[in-house]
Amino acid sequence: WRIFFCPVFTGMFLLFSAPSYTVAQSPGNPAGKFKVEPPAGTELVRESRERQDMLDSKSPAGLRVVQITTDPEIASSNIYTEIQVFTPDSRRFIFRRQRDYWLCDTGDNFSLRKLTDEPRAQAPSVSPDGKWMYYFVNTTTTTDGALTLKRVSLDNFERQTVLSIDSPIPGTQLYAEHLANQTLKDPSEYQEGDVHGQFIFRHRHPHIKRGQETEFILKAFRRDFEVNGPSVLRIARTVLAGWKRYKNHADARIRNRFAWEARDLTVTFPASLWAARQWFRERNPLVFRKLTTLLDDMKREVGLKARLVAPLAGRIVWSKLRQEARRLKAGWTYEPPTFYETNASMLGCRPHWKFPAVPIHWVAAQVRG
Asked: What is the rounded distance in angstroms from the CA atom of residue 292 to the CA atom of residue 361?
């Protein structure tokens, strides 16, 4: 896998060492579960061109340079390689063009397709199976005051609204609706810093009573952990699935990529899963069975080394896990104490604050001889 990106003001360049790809199959959209919107773009855009002028006698054999965006009227194109923007087969990737996200298909002569058209779309991520691009639409400070999680199918390009978190922020449409319906709480009933109502809603909810807000959030996290287990289980399962799917891929670059991704399947994951099994054996039988199934699958796939490492290195991890549990039980925390500071003017404007705020004061510099 040899792909390098050079964002420039006039376009984006893609360098790669061979053009061989296989088409990844992607099933259609599941129906009926989420609100569906039509594709943001209905046509393929083709504007790439070869850039032989960027090669010289020192360039590696077989290297091509392709400029995939060349429209002079569109000034900015960017790709962020620190996030999951590639499909698993490395054939397609996501990039940002002005305010929208686009899909480039290197196997289709670098064709481009527009995926989003929402003004505040952000944080794209391709799902591990390569079927979806998830992203947020952030309107928390404009229009409706919502943070919306959406996804777009990389098969038929329909968009779906997965989840929306609304909050009546002043200046938004939702705030105006609550104001008109007289459902906003008095400022003395909530904390100004808790703008999204994770502790107390700033409006009267028809079904969630005061004091239930935090409990609902904590209950959701607890339930997710009880059913799906710790993050190490999810990460190891995803890495193992990717390795099994692409370890024999025809393209050596893809094989090498997933071999690198799967480097922890030999020691780190077997040891961690073995220790996690010990932890959940009596605490959560459902998660224990999931961990057992995954560890057995990993041992079959990796072989003798994983079978030997799991109980040996796993005992070290298990010992550290119990040591950390004892330390937390004794009162140790990962986060430092929280404190609030404010100025005199703000104290006068917010006498209803229920948390103690320490007045800010000037500290004279001390000169040491």
From this structure: 57
Tell me how far apart the alpha carbons of residues 145 and 196 are, in angstroms, rounded to a whole number: 9
Residue 95, strand partner residues: 102
pLDDT for position 350: 61
Nearest to 84 by CA among 242, 237, 221: 242
Residue 197: predicted pLDDT: 67
As beta bridge partners, residue 359 has 342
Which tokens go with 118? 């929402």
Distance CA 240, CA 14 (A): 29
Say how many C-beta atoms besides its own lie within 10 A of residue 280's C-beta. Answer: 20
Residues of the chain with pLDDT under 70: 1-33, 81-82, 140-145, 166, 171, 192-198, 346-357, 361-369
- Look at residue 366 in the predicted model and tell me its pLDDT: 66
- pLDDT for position 243: 93
Which pLDDT does position 21 carry in this prediction?
25
Alpha-carbon distance 163 to 34, whole Å? 9
Return d(Cα 124, Cα 161) in angstroms, integer: 14
CA-to-CA distance for 260 and 239, rounded, in angstroms?
10
DSSP, res 188: G
Helix/strand/coil for 156: coil
In the prediction, which pLDDT does 248 show?
A: 93
* Whole-model pTM over 0.70: no
Model pLDDT, residue 363: 64
Rounded to whole angstroms, the Cα distance separating 328 from 112 reads 51
Is 127 within 8 Å of 86 (Cβ atoms)?
A: no
Tokens (6 digits) for 93: 């990737």
Q: Which residues touch 237 (CB under 8 Å, ≥6 apart)? A: 294
**Residue 235 CB partners (closer than 8 Å, separation 6+):** none
Closest among 183, 108, 101, 192 to 150, alpha carbons compared: 101
- What pLDDT, on the 0 to 100 scale, is given for residue 7? 34
Torsion of Cα atoms, 185 then 190 then 191 then 195, to 10°: -50
3-state secondary structure of 99: coil
3-state SS string over 168-181?
A: CCCCCHHHHHHHHH
Residue 35, amino acid: K
Q: Number of C-alpha atoms within 13 angstroms, CB side, residue 234?
A: 9
For position 141, what pLDDT does the model report? 64
